[in-house]
Design a protein that fits this description.
mainly alpha
């Protein structure tokens, strides 16, 4: 029912009923904003990533109510939340950006060594090349073998190693998205009774988003505090959060949840080994 009260649109200056949620002339929301940090951040996300204030509601539920966001989405309560895939892509973009700029990661450690280490490594590389030259006749190799040999030689250089790890980061960021359906398949086999594959896919998309957030925060903390114990704290937190998500979403007892988690991580570990081998081969081919 129209209350009869009229207000003036802050955008177009025309008057309309205060009962309207949006101005019927220009479409601006009938809401006053106090230009708080939350509002400014929401406007920035909306303009650049097509995200709005839903991101805050979604993240709050994602981080502090394990499994509830997934359950709400599957139950049809979706309007107030960011879609799982959009949320995953946004968080993964931030995570892999941090991974590329934060020092002391695996690739940086392998590339940046001191002078004495460089001398020793260079001597070993030269010795390896001499042995290979003496034992391998290039005329007996086919085109593919020569290509692999050339890539291996390039990988021996500091520039080659840097390019390789850059390729790895880029390929892993894309590959992790491709890996999600296979990870969901593992969950489907573990919890196949009275469930659909799509449920497990949404679950793992949300859970992996949480993993990215925790690892991203760990990298930021590592910039300030160079404590080796931080890694073990991150690992313990990841396991604990995963346990909570499994238990709350699938509703199993503590014992069954732990058992299912062990089986999942064993299978997931093998899947990740295969994944990294494939990513390494692809990175080497484009070296």
């Amino acid at each position: 029912m129209d209350s009869g009260k009229k207000i003036t649109c802050l955008n177009c200056g025309r008057r309309f009923s205060a009962d309207y949620a949006f101005c019927p002339y220009c479409g601006q929301a009938n809401k006053k904003h106090d230009l708080s940090f939350k509002y400014v951040l929401s406007e920035f996300l909306s303009a650049n990533f097509n995200l709005d204030s839903k991101i805050f509601v979604t993240l709050k539920l994602l981080l502090f109510s394990p499994g509830k966001l997934t359950r709400d989405y599957l139950d049809g309560k979706r309007m107030q939340y960011i879609s799982p895939l959009r949320l995953y892509l946004f968080i993964s973009l931030i995570y892999f950006f941090l991974l590329s700029v934060v020092p002391n990661r695996a690739g940086d450690k392998m590339v940046h060594v001191d002078a004495s280490q460089k001398t020793a490594v260079t001597a070993k590389k030269e010795a390896a090349v001499e042995i290979r030259t003496a034992t391998v006749n290039p005329d007996t190799l086919n085109a593919f073998e020569k290509t692999i040999l050339a890539k291996a030689d390039r990988l021996q250089s500091e520039e080659g190693q840097k390019t390789f790890w850059q390729n790895m980061r880029k390929n892993i960021s894309t590959g992790m998205l491709v890996l999600l359906p296979f990870t969901a398949l593992l969950l489907y086999f573990l919890f196949y009774r009275n469930s659909y594959y799509f449920e497990h896919l949404i679950f793992i998309v949300h859970l992996q988003t949480v993993w990215f957030i925790i690892s991203g925060v760990y990298m930021l903390i590592q910039l300030v505090f160079h404590w080796k114990a931080l890694f073990y704290f991150e690992l313990a937190l990841l396991l604990w959060v995963t346990f909570l998500w499994f238990k709350q979403f699938y509703g199993k007892s503590t014992g069954k949840t732990i058992g299912k988690m062990i089986l999942f991580f064993l299978a997931f570990g093998l899947l990740m080994i295969l994944f990294f081998v494939i990513m390494a081969v692809i990175s080497l081919l484009f070296l």
